[in-house]
Specification:
The protein is an all-alpha fold. Helix content is about 65%, strand content about 0%. It is globular and about 60 Å long.
Length: about 220
């Protein structure tokens, strides 16, 4: 039976999780399911009812916690990108960050959050993306938008080539670190690449070495 606001406290948590009555767990379950469905189908093709059904709640519960579908997508995107934002913030406060280390950290985050590339491409990067404006205002400054400043610091310290504009370096790093995961199904089938296990670690080694040779003096 789908859970409502009245019976949620007496219900077991969905998908085999330990039972709990906390608001955090209800929100987390809805966010987890919404992230997966938005990534698989896209925002427009994913009704709130489908999210509610997959999470084991009623649509009223989803609206109670998130207001509407666009607000839910905003919360999904912010939660999915928060680990990446924290990594970049730590790099900014470090004494020095090699460009190859930036690639490794980005690739590690994305490999642990496989829905992230599809969410960003569908709802931010493509024309008409639902979250383009929100992303540009609230998320980009903490994410890729922070990389040029970080790389400019490294260039001033002589750790990055002086003839490499930081914005171009940032774009190259993001492309090399993130694009393979965006095209992962095609890359694995057409190119024979494997982006999991030891094969992923080997891939990271090659991309990191490529970036180091291209960006360092």
């Amino acid at each position: 039976m789908p859970r409502t606001l009245k019976n949620v406290k007496a219900s077991a948590n969905p998908r085999g999780r330990p039972g709990t009555s906390s608001t955090v767990d209800v929100r987390a379950t809805i966010l987890e399911v919404a992230e997966r469905l938005f990534a698989e189908r896209g925002y427009t093709a994913t009704p709130v009812r489908d999210i509610a059904d997959a999470a084991g709640f009623t649509p009223a519960m989803v609206h109670y916690y998130f207001g509407n579908k666009e607000t839910l997508l905003q919360a999904v995107l912010e939660q999915a990108l928060e680990p990446l934002a924290r990594v970049i913030e730590k790099m900014k406060s470090a004494d020095a960050v090699a460009p190859e280390d930036i690639v490794r950290r980005l690739m590690t985050i994305v490999s642990k959050h496989p829905n992230l590339p599809y969410l960003v491409v569908r709802e931010v990067m493509l024309p008409g993306g639902t979250m383009q404006a929100h992303f540009a205002r609230h998320l980009a400054p903490r994410l890729g938008g922070a990389l040029p400043g970080l790389l400019e610091r490294e260039r001033r310290e002589g750790r990055i080539r002086d003839d490499m504009p930081p914005a171009i370096a940032a774009m190259a790093i993001m492309a090399l670190a993130l694009f393979p995961f965006i095209v992962r199904p095609v890359a694995e089938q057409a190119l024979g690449l494997r982006l999991s296990g030891k094969a992923l670690l080997d891939f990271e080694d090659h991309i990191s070495a490529f970036v180091k040779r291209g960006l360092t003096p």
